[in-house]
Design a protein that fits this description.
9 strands, Teichuronopeptide biosynthesis TupA-like protein, 2 domains, ATPgrasp_TupA, 19% strand, globular, alpha+beta
């Protein structure tokens, strides 16, 4: 069993702990200090504060990979939505004969239940079934205490397979938005080859000296042709939200919506240099709580 799976099992074993205590334990494991939840200052501290205090019920459908499609389509239009080929409660209900030669299977309630099928004739059905069934059994909320995931109905969806003919991959363009304003974004490359790289840019597409979990690419990342369009769509989708990450793809000149993420890396991933945790923390303005909402 690899380290990632071991850590996941440990986190899940601690599911009986209250959110605030669990957050402190896991934060300490990454930072060697406790999270300041009373007067949060950094980006990651504020993300964990938001887990405990910002309980907008709309967030539940906004992180559900199936329900979010209608939510987003109603705001920016159906043309930005990756086509859904099917949705099922159980793996055994999937009619593979009805699916095209290329497609993607993913769970609606987590970030790890993913099977990319480039050639249906080579799909290992049993391996795919095990991976997705394992994901269906796991409540993603217990991994990072991201409360919107707690009551999502676990399902499997099939989506159209996407790949840009220019880059030869599906790059993610992820915009970190604060109060409806995108201020920083990063491009994910190399994921399909198992060589994931993150490159951060400002809103003029100037490369920033930031490393978070993954190294920078060793090649120059070109500005997507629809960068300004993505930026505007991110602004619209993040309106009136303290913080949300809005993800897009660009495929052969067309923009597709990816997902909405409220807790980037679950609020547990350090930045290098560390000053960026403080810079993003200054951008994130926390909502004012009613006195009865304040937890002692």
């Amino acid at each position: 069993m690899n380290k990632k799976k071991i850590l996941k099992k440990i986190k899940y074993a601690l599911r009986f702990l209250p959110d605030s205590i669990y957050i402190q334990i896991y934060y300490f494991a990454h930072y060697k200090r406790f999270c300041n939840l009373k007067e949060p200052r950094t980006f990651n501290e504020k993300l964990n504060w938001l887990k405990l205090h910002d309980r907008n019920p709309d967030y539940i459908k906004m992180v559900d990979k199936y329900e979010v499609k209608k939510y987003v389509a109603d705001i920016i239009g159906e043309e930005y939505i990756v086509p859904t080929l099917g949705v099922w409660d159980n793996f055994d209900d999937i009619d593979f004969n009805s699916l095209p030669e290329q497609f993607v299977l993913k769970c609606t309630h987590d970030s790890e239940g993913l099977v990319i099928v480039k050639d249906k004739s080579k799909l290992d059905i049993n391996l795919a079934k095990k991976k997705l069934n394992d994901a269906l059994k796991c409540n993603f909320y217990y991994i990072g205490r991201e409360w919107p995931y707690k009551n999502i109905k676990p399902r499997i969806i099939a989506e159209q397979f996407l790949e840009d003919s220019i880059t030869g991959e599906l790059r993610d363009y992820k915009f970190l938005c604060f109060g409806g304003e995108p201020k920083l974004m990063f491009v994910v490359t190399g994921r399909s080859s198992g060589n994931t790289k993150f490159d951060f840019f400002d809103m003029d597409f100037n490369h920033q000296n930031i490393i978070q979990h993954y190294p920078n690419s060793d090649v120059t990342i070109t500005k997507p042709s629809n960068f300004d369009k993505m930026k505007e769509l991110a602004r619209v989708l993040s309106k009136n939200i303290p913080h949300v990450r809005v993800d897009f793809y660009e495929v052969d000149g067309k923009v597709y919506f990816g997902e909405l993420t409220f807790y980037h890396f679950s609020g547990f991933m350090p930045f290098q240099p560390a000053k960026w945790d403080e810079i993003l923390g200054e951008w994130l303005q926390l909502p004012t709580l009613h006195p009865k909402e304040v937890k002692k």
